[in-house]
């Protein structure tokens, strides 16, 4: 983290309290973010990084006769911020030896950022020019069966589509919190449905509470890229006699290169 753009040196927070806050933030963000485990992650490239190339160009009006001109296309990085407040009492308790400070505002904000990142990757974010995996997919969405025991058949159908399109595995299945719970708790003739689904994908089954339904995608690499400028960081905004206002921030963009490499479940 750089002090210059986060202004952490201005916060009335001791080194021990910062460490405690960051440990909780790291645990919570990692627990709730899912897409980073299956798409390619590039970076972090630093706070000065503003865009990534798309590899495309388009012709523009030439500057002089006899000259051809083209403009290289780039996709900008979006900056996300999630402000939150922590009580100074809880911060000071750390210096007094407390190991049970209430960092629930930190956890709530970290969870919100993790959910936002996953939704941006899966469903897109138009203001930042991000299409998202679902809208970019060339495969027709499959309806999740009402009966959980029929999930393996639906997943097998999705895997077959990817293979027919020449998209190799292993395949990762992202399941919403509701779908993951249903799959984890259901058996068919004594056999866990989760085991059936794993045999279909030959890859990971991930709990993805930020998304709706489910999403199957190839984990072979090279199909999807999440580019980070500034990695998830905590900055300082202000403080008064009772609270310190902080914020999570990150800069990122997402690109989908292979429309055949995913199948969405409604």
UniProtKB/TrEMBL annotation:
Domain of life of the native organism: Bacteria
A Pfam family reported for this protein in Swiss-Prot or TrEMBL: Linocin_M18
UniProt-annotated location(s): Encapsulin nanocompartment
UniProt keyword terms in alphabetical order: Encapsulin nanocompartment
Family: Belongs to the encapsulin family. Family 1 subfamily.
PANTHER family: PEPTIDASE U56 FAMILY (PTHR37165), TYPE 1 ENCAPSULIN SHELL PROTEIN (PTHR37165:SF1)
Annotated protein name in UniProt: Type 1 encapsulin shell protein
